[in-house]
Every structure is written in C-alpha cells, then in structure tokens.
Input
Amino acid sequence: MRKLLSLIFSLKKPKVKPLNQLSVISYQLSVISYQLSVISYQLSVISYQLSRWVELNIR
Output
C-alpha cells in the first residue's frame, strides 16, 4: 500500500502545450481523486482494525 502511495505521489506532470492546459488540470484532478479514494480506503481499514482491537480489549 505504501509503495502504491509513493508511486501515486511521484507521478510527474506530462509535458504539454498551453492548449492542453485543461487536459492537464483534469488529469491532475483525477490523480487527486484517486489519491483521496486510496486514503479513504486506508481510513476504513484503520477504523476496522481499531474496532477489532477495542473489541478484543474490552473482553
């Protein structure tokens, strides 16, 4: 998972002409939304692990 994240964050901007500025922006937005989905997935995993840990410790 960490390798995946570092791979995502190390993505370089494609070299394009000013005409393609919009496509660059949309590309960056898609990368950001992908990063956010990865983060939300990690958060759900963490919350699940926390709930399991709490469950085990309460007993």
Summary: Residues 14-58 form one domain. Residues 21-58 form the longest helix (38 residues).
